[in-house]
Design goal:
The complex is a heterodimer of chains A (213) and B (253).
Chain A lengths: L2 E5 L7 H14 L3 E5 L2 H6 L2 E4 L5 H10 L3 H11 L4 E4 L1 H4 L4 E2 L5 E2 L6 E5 L11 E6 L1 E2 L14 E6 L1 E5 L5 E6 L3 E8 L2 E4 L7 H13 L3
Parallel strand pairs in A: 1-2, 1-3, 3-4, 4-14, 5-7
Antiparallel strand pairs in A: 5-6, 7-11, 8-10, 9-12, 12-13, 13-14
Helix pairs in contact in A: 1-6
Chain B lengths: L4 E9 L2 E2 L14 H11 L4 E5 L7 H12 L6 E4 L5 H10 L3 E4 L1 H5 L2 H10 L4 E11 L2 E6 L4 E6 H11 L3 E6 L11 H10 L4 E4 L5 H9 L5 E4 L1 H4 L5 H10 L8
Parallel strand pairs in B: 1-3, 1-11, 3-4, 4-5, 5-6, 6-9, 9-10, 10-11
Antiparallel strand pairs in B: 1-2, 6-7, 7-8
Chain lengths: 213, 253
Amino acid sequence: MTLTVLVDYDSGNLHSAAKAFQRMADETGAGEIIVSSRPEDVLRASRIVLPGDGAFPSCRRALAAQDGLFEAIEEAVVTRARPFFGICIGMQMLASRGFEHGETPGFDWIRGEVGRISPADPALKVPHMGWNDLQIDRSHPVLSGVNSGDHAYFVHSWQFRTASAEDRIAWVDYAGEVTAIVGRDNIFGTQFHPEKSAATGLRIIANFLAWKP
Amino acid sequence: MLKTRLIPCLDVADGRVVKGVNFVNLVDAGDPVAVAAAYDRAGADEITFLDIHATHENRGTMFDLVTRTAEQIYVPLTVGGGVRSHEDVRALLLAGADKVSFNSAAVANPDVVAEAADRFGSQCIVVAIDAKTVSPGKWEIFTHGGRKPTGIDAVDFARLVEAKGAGEILLTSMDRDGTKDGYNLPLTRAISDAVKIPVIASGGAGTLDHLVAGIRDGGASAVLAASIFHFGTYTIAEAKAHMAAAGIPMRLE
């Protein structure tokens, strides 16, 4: 029985993500989904999901505040190469550093920085909130059946600029190119919320649950 | 490019849809869960629940409703009505809401917005502003369902809640609400121009051209409507196609 752990580090709304993963796990026979903040659960997981809402530094602090939790995630993802899915802030924390409320180091698993979205056009609002159409840079197993032009639901004021173009898998247009999906080896992350992105998002979740990087 | 959002809104009281819904073959058209799921399938970009007589006694009913709805829909769900504190926000987020809307409580104490935004992030904090025209080009905030004047200027208040960390404004014209005469476009434009955060136009949508005008002339980022969808006057798909034909970027998949 495979186990997928959604890491709970008190980062806000996990319910939506958990029910979407549960539904797709049920439909595809992808095993058990649990929400947990226990390092031992992370270490026995076959797959790890890091959701997250809120500000970069407070999420980073909250993760660090749970004894042994970050170390367990690092062991599972970096050493044991378990498939990892970061969502929204959970994706941004993959970066080298973030600049929300001052500079905060990220995991540095995907090199790059998280900076503010600041459109020159005042008609473009911040947060970037709503449905935007994905422009896919390169194919990826988790995007099987997802095409450029498919929509996903975004809500964020900060964006991840990857140092290497190869680590960006998709982008959307909002006052220029905004990173929508990053990936490298067993690590995958979306700026948008797949659990709120209707059929496209559910497909991405199902693909992740079947992914063998 | 970012698409304009079309948001059906359900007024809910004691766990039931108020005024009824008459647009699809639902077994129970008064059940908010069934109606929300139908709107999700129809292509709504988000769904909003407003608990119109939120009291302490019926809070449990609303939480249960939100939990059951969250199991059915995979687009964002905003919940408002009777939200007074960041504890209320937390409880609704845990139940499955994606965004929570403050109204009277934000007027009484704008710092509740800051407390909630600091804890949960601006992305999930909406402030609902109910405004009435008091003279040409001047709008005042009203609370308690539009019955209680506050003396607060709506544009000033919009800027204040933005500074407190609101992620979005749900702007309802109390002059137009329920009239089907169209959104209050000067009000919508004034608020949209005053803040950098998205503004949802609400109150008065009666035709599909009203939806277009709310975006094009009002400068809103999203349009909210209730009765035109509930009573089957138009479907979500018709509304989106009409807006797209008028040159507004819409999600049509």
